[in-house]
């Protein structure tokens, strides 16, 4: 039974007794987050800024009610259940990183099949403003909308950019469902989701793009200057499938806008990557201290470090309201 459970986890199947249903989320949109104990502070920070951005914009419903949390250990899952968050448990935090990415994409697939649009949001991709306002303005026939990146390199070299799977909106369309189904049909083990998805859409499994790819806005390929912050959002189409690459100036991946900027909607901290649970250079809670020391106060709020004072609140919204009401200045010295 233990070997069977390990095999199920490696294939992205959650522990059935600790799995919610995406249909339990009332909104059509799902915000899919993933965390474990070592990433708890970053998770709290992400949720805090989501709540703050939504309160300020007042354009959409409470994003905390749309959260679907994929937990990689029992600590995260117990915290999720305490606060009534929809989600699931996968004890894969010590597995190869490809298994972790597969797990997240499998959760997204389940929500897509339930008719939900799924925003996959890394917990280090912080909302400065509510991105749903901008994402909702992109034409409904666009299947996938994502931050602009440079990995995998062959796709970036060919069309000038790639879709970042750390901030990507999968709309529940026939094209999107077919794409995700194809990924799992052809990949039985762990994989890098960003590499696989970009190759499927733009390189046909690693081969060059067909001639029919075109930029529906400008009839040109994306500017090959990868980190040009002036690039607008661009949509590419391939055989009916449409993907939008978000503007760097609005959805900042490489800190194009140094310091606070009125333009930035989401700022995705470019920390080093490594297996989940690895202290460095993975994007774990050590990043929280680096953000604090480096002064990125527009995407890291010191008050989340005192969140334990608010844990008496079982409602996630009340928990975030309590954190927001804590004193803004905390004098604790950052730990090494």
Record keyword descriptors for this entry.
10 helices; single chain; alpha/beta; 3-stranded mixed sheet; 9-stranded mixed sheet
Question: What does this protein look like?
Answer:
α3 (about 75-80) links the parallel β2 and β3. It contains 10 helices and 12 strands. It has about 325 residues and is α/β, with parallel strands linked by helices. α2 (about 40-55) crosses α10 (about 315-325) and α4 runs antiparallel to α7.
Topology at a glance:
Layout: H1 2-10, E1 29-35, H2 40-57, E2 67-71, H3 74-82, E3 86-89, H4 97-113, E4 117-121, E5 125-127, H5 132-135, E6 144-149, H6 153-159, E7 162-170, H7 174-186, H8 193-202, E8 214-215, E9 234-238, E10 241-245, E11 251-252, E12 266-268, H9 286-294, H10 316-325
Parallel strand pairs: 1-2, 1-4, 2-3, 6-10, 11-12
Antiparallel strand pairs: 4-7, 5-12, 6-7, 8-9, 9-10
The largest beta-sheet arranges its strands as 3-2-1-4-7-6-10-9-8
Q: How much helix is in the residues?
A: 25-40%
Low-confidence runs: 205-227, 272-283, 331-336
DSSP strand count: 12
Overall shape: it is globular
* Cα radius of gyration in angstroms: 19 Å
The major sheet is characterized as:
9 strands, mixed
How far is the N terminus from the C terminus? 42 Å
Sheet-strand content, in percent, reads: 15-25%
Output the number of helix runs: 10
The topology string of helices and strands comes to HEHEHEHEEHEHEHHEEEEEHH
Structural class: alpha/beta
- Could you tell me the mean pLDDT? 79
């Amino acid at each position: 039974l233990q070997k069977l459970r390990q095999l199920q986890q490696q294939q992205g199947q959650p522990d059935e007794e600790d799995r919610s249903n995406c249909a339990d989320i009332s909104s059509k949109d799902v915000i899919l987050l993933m965390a474990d104990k070592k990433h708890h502070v970053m998770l709290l920070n992400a949720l805090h800024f989501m709540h703050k951005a939504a309160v300020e914009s007042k354009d959409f419903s409470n994003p905390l009610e749309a959260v679907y949390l994929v937990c990689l250990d029992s600590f995260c899952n117990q915290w999720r259940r305490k606060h009534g968050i929809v989600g699931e448990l996968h004890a894969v935090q010590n597995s190869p990183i490809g298994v972790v990415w597969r797990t997240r994409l499998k959760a997204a697939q389940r929500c897509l099949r339930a008719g939900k649009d799924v925003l996959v949001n890394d917990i280090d991709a912080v909302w400065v403003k509510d991105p749903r306002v901008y994402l909702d303005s992109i034409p409904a026939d666009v299947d996938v909308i994502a931050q602009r990146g440079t990995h995998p390199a062959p796709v970036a070299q060919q069309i000038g950019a790639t879709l970042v799977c750390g901030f990507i909106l999968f709309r529940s369309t026939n094209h999107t469902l077919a794409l995700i189904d194809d990924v799992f049909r052809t990949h039985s083990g762990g994989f890098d989701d960003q590499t696989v998805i970009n190759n499927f859409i733009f390189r046909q499994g690693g081969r060059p793009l067909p001639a029919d790819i075109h930029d529906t806005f400008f009839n040109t390929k994306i500017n090959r200057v990868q980190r040009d912050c002036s690039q607008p959002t661009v949509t590419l189409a391939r055989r009916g499938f449409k993907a939008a690459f978000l503007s760097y100036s609005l959805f900042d991946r490489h800190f194009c806008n140094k310091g606070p900027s009125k333009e930035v909607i989401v700022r995705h901290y470019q920390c080093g990557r490594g297996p989940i649970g690895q202290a460095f250079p993975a994007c774990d809670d050590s990043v929280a201290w680096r953000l604090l020391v480096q002064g990125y106060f527009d995407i890291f709020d010191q008050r989340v470090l005192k969140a334990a004072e608010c844990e008496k609140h079982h409602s996630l919204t009340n928990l975030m309201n309590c954190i927001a009401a804590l004193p803004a200045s905390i004098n604790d010295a950052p730990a090494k």
